[in-house]
Amino acid sequence: MPASSPAAFLPASLGVLAPPEPHPLPETSSSWERPRATLFPSGPCTSSAEPVAQPMGQGPKNPCVSGVTVQLEMKPLWEEFNQLGTEMIVTKAGRKMFPTFQVKILGMDSLADYALLMDFIPLDDKRYRYAFHSSAWLVAGKADPATPGRVHFHPDSPAKGAQWMRQIVSFDKLKLTNNLLDDNGHIILNSMHRYQPRFHVVFVDPRKDSARYAQENFKSFVFAETQFTAVTAYQNHRITQLKIASNPFAKGFRESDLDSWPVAPRHLLSIPARSRSS
Amino acid sequence: MPASSPAAFLPASLGVLAPPEPHPLPETSSSWERPRATLFPSGPCTSSAEPVAQPMGQGPKNPCVSGVTVQLEMKPLWEEFNQLGTEMIVTKAGRKMFPTFQVKILGMDSLADYALLMDFIPLDDKRYRYAFHSSAWLVAGKADPATPGRVHFHPDSPAKGAQWMRQIVSFDKLKLTNNLLDDNGHIILNSMHRYQPRFHVVFVDPRKDSARYAQENFKSFVFAETQFTAVTAYQNHRITQLKIASNPFAKGFRESDLDSWPVAPRHLLSIPARSRSS
DNA sequence: AGTTTGTCACCTAGGTGGCAAAGT
DNA sequence: ACTTTGCCACCTAGGTGACAAACT
Known about the structure:
- By secondary structure, chain A is α+β, with helices and mostly antiparallel strands.
- Helix content of chain A is 12%, strand content 24%.
- The first copy, chain A, has helices spanning 63-66, 75-84, 161-166, 237-246, 266-269, and strands at 69-72, 87-89, 95-96, 102-106, 113-122, 126-131, 136-142, 152-153, 159-160, 169-170, 175-177, 187-188, 194-203, 218-222, 228-231.
- In chain A, the strands form 4 sheets. In chain A, strands 2, 5, 8, 9, 13, 14 and 15 form a 7-stranded mixed β-sheet that branches.
């Protein structure tokens, strides 16, 4: 199943997932849009306890989800970023997150079906800008109109609990975009705004009237250390350096430790022109 | 779900898939081994009719599978290879097939669950060798002991009929190996032997005693134009040339049409030595 | 002035057949 | 004599931040 495709196997189980919105969502109608119902309890995002994440305060749960616990992978790396103020690039085509959101899951019913998904909620209703001279984020006004509230289903959804618990679950297909008209099912965010990723475990209820139990059949998890500011270009140079140091795909930008070679900027060392075909 | 992992969702539904074996399988016990039961009708592989594949002669079927039909994609390419005598490389690490086995599926129940899988049966009990002077395959004796009869589940299995029918189903994760001790769930074949790929559609029966209906819940398809000889190195030079001409990953071996440049063998034109790190 | 976009060099990751060497 | 193996150059495919130009 492709990521973020309409979840035919989840009959309206997710209407309950709509987050507290600082202001109303714009009206759109893509198939990735999140339903508007706001039955979910509002309030600030709970920080996770150690070493296992704490679910958000929620009502009575189906035994298939009530015992589920989740551990964030690469937690030390996330904390290192969070300490500097994590930034995530958003592009028109969609950009992967780094670090990738990955979790280890415990306590599922091995034989039951679950869908796993993520969404992103605004951490506040502010717009920010970065003051380079003071190396600090400043409030730059009220938030821009909220983006369409999409969700990203893990592409392996639905699958048995045994399958999800077998190994680390990685949301490495998830991409972030600032394109409000995005057609690829990517998560749409406002640049220069702060967000909190959320992780949801949904029990796929085999009962005919499963929609009635939607509220009881899912459990949500929030890791405060994964919050970030969406940007179109990195603002904090220390974030850039940590990305380069820790992301294998950015290895090309690493200096060979103390060696000051190459001396000239890389673009002056290589062939400058390239024929523009088609 | 990873390719070829044990199909927990298919309670013994596949014991019926064991093919007619020219001689007994060696006793092994990998989790990818195919059960030995040979309830399946024996006989030569049926050639497919046009334009939709013909299933193998089988007994009464569950309505969920009885109406399923399958079209082979890239049929002209398969036929071009088959005319020359298709060869598929097998390696210790596992090699993808080219062309890739891809099908378009019709007639599933949109709301029912299906698993799709492939296996490979010996076309005869012979071993072959290639006579370069006459450019022909010759019988070189009786077949080597049969390899463990593994199956390859399409990694998206199980999924709804609607999902499978939405677009072309591609078995591009399937790999062939000649390593009898393979640990990666790849399909094990004997080099210099001829094989016939088979494609199976299995309805995932929700009934508790689904094992009793296994025989009725699947439908198998054979495309004669996809048969091939397993090899560790290409024998027929025309097969090599057709692979190079049609596989994008072999583009590096294409000559620029009539241009005779480069004049020297490529390994003489490039830097000969390479530092062997670690 | 601040933010966004498009292009680029430079990586990771992995699929090709060629080829020399090893194996049988 | 025939077959297999391991390594290699050369691709495809796509994920990085840098940077100049464009946008607002």
